[in-house]
Each structure stands twice: as structure tokens, then as C-alpha cells.
Write a structure and sequence with these properties.
The chain is α+β, with helices and mostly antiparallel strands. It has six helices and 21 strands. Strand 8 and strand 9 form a beta hairpin.
Amino acid sequence: MTRTSIVLALSAVVATGWLSMQCSTNSAMPGSNVGPDGSSLQDAGSADGAVGADAASDSGGESGQESGGAPNGPTLGGCPLFSPEFAYNQDISQSAIDVQSAAYLATLKANAPDIGLDYPGGEIYNIVPASQPAVPVGTTSWFGFDSTDTFFFAADAGAASAPVPASVQYENMGTPNEDHHMMILQQGTCQLFELYAWAPTSSTQGWSALVEWDLAGSNEQIPDNLEIGSTTAAGTPLLPGVIWPDEVAAGEIQHALDIVMPANAIAKCDYVHPASDGAWTATGTFPYGGRFRLKASYDTSHVTGSQALVVIRALQKYGMFNTDISGETRSSFRLGGLGAGQGWDQADITQLASLTWDDFDVVDLGTVHTMAGCN
């Protein structure tokens, strides 16, 4: 498959499948420019089991590790959560406020005033060893970043495979007609496999997208010219945007979070990095990939316990990105966990619902991209 045919194949998926509707990979051989199925690649410039529910901008060229090999920055499952230069890992506590911040926030207050959180959460990531064998995966599309962090690939979905363990767990598992996200973090390789479908038929069949991310990499920005989502409608990885119980229990979240917003809050057609796609059906003004920062002056005197405070500190230092359309009229955070007893104090963590748009600023958005053919 040539590079041109890869792009055309992806365009067909966008035109006919889940990516265009905004519903919510195995790597190449290191050092090669050949994809897992022999296709060409596009230059983009522990134990088996589920954890995360109860376990403990544009990028540069850094590896995300200290010279001695130890991860530098946030980690999950012994792997860096991308490099320090990755957009989610940027300290934006002193970054400039966007010139249109007040206007954006006024529109959000008028059209979608409520911010909430779905307790007890449903996102989970699975950790598998490097030896976990890959199995065939039935998916409509298959793409991502190879393990050299040099190329973005789009391969024949009919040949898709991923190291899905028999014990895998995922969002809304066993519940039809709901969003289903699956995340698998492979130790050793530090490859992240993310899958999405509205109603998959099994853990390995009926998926809409399989996306592979290189957690040790730094250049994890889906190319603009493809204008495709991923397992989020905005085209960002899902893993770093979730509020994970293990990070909160450790007392610090070292990365930005995701906020999922209703259609009347999101701008149609427009996006900013780290997003790579816009919303075709939205009617609001705020672009995918836009970043909010909780004001340093936010009064925490009414916040009891420690869990909400950990999230509040992260929102002040790293902020939150708009990455998906909500099926509700409110905006909401993504919460990790598969039920009660996963480390959450309901009275504590649900205090995040007291946040309002008056408590935030919009960080300078930078270059706003508009999808071709979207009107």
C-alpha cells in the first residue's frame, strides 16, 4: 500500500465511518519505514491484567527519560506518559491567557453552564508484559505511531492485531449501545493500544478504531492533513486525560486532563493542537484541543478531603483539554474506575462539580486549524 493509498483509505473511513460522526496497531519494525502489514509510513515530523482503576502542543525530540534511563515526568505502569515536551505534560500555570478568553467563557456560561463528573467512573487501562502475544482485532481503522517515534502509519485494518489479554477489561464492558474505550499498556515496549467502538461484539471484534501510541515518544501529533480522530473525537490519546485513582492516591497528577463538552459548546470545523480533527456536528465556539486553566485564585476553603484538591492543583498547573462531545447538556471530566471500592471517596471527588466557568481562563490557543470542506 503506498502512502497515497493510505491517506485515501483513511479519507474513506472519515467519509463513511465513526470518525466523521465524532463518536467519541502494531508497530513497524524499529528504524524502518514499513508498516506492520508492509505498507509505507507517513513521516510525522508486570503481569497480565487490568489496572488503573485500583492500582497504585507540538513536540520536540526528547525521549521523555533522564540520561540514566529513569522516566522523567508522569509514569504509568513503569512507562513514561509521553515526553516532558508532550502537550499534556506542559506546566501552563504562567502561560498567557488567550485574547478571546472572556468571550469563550461567556458563551460557555450561556450555552453549557454546568460542569460535572460521572461517579464512580468507567475508564480503565490494562497492563500486559512485553511477551503478551498479539491477536487479530476486528476494526474499521488501524493507525498510530511506530515504536521509533518517527512515523505515523495507517495500515490495512484487515490485518490489525494488538496484545489483548484474555482478562482484558474496558469501559461499559458487557453493556451494548454505549461508548466503549479499551486501553492496553505494554510494558517493555511502552506501546499504548487504544480502541473505540459504540457497541463492539467482543473484546477483539466489532471495533471502530485501533490506535497505537508510543508512550516513550515525543512527536505524538497526528498529522493535520489527515484530519482524523482517534479514540477521542479530537484525535488525542485517551490515557493521559483521565483522572486515575492511583495518581490521586499518590498525591499529584503531573499532566493535563480532558473535559468532554456538549455539542453547543464546541466549535464546528475548528481545532488547535494537540487535537488533529474538528467537530462536524457541533454548534458552539470552543475548538477541540483548546486548553483551560483553573485560576490560581480559586478558593479551596470549601473543599474537604484530599482527592478533589489533587485534581484542582493539576487543573491549575496543567489545565484541561476539550477533546470530545458529550451526550449530555453538561461538560464532564473522565474518571477512572469500574465501580465502588476503586479508591474513590464519592463525597470528596464529586466536589469537582462545584467548579464553574468563572473559575477558569482559556490559555492562548495558538494556531487555529479549520478542516477542509467543513462548513
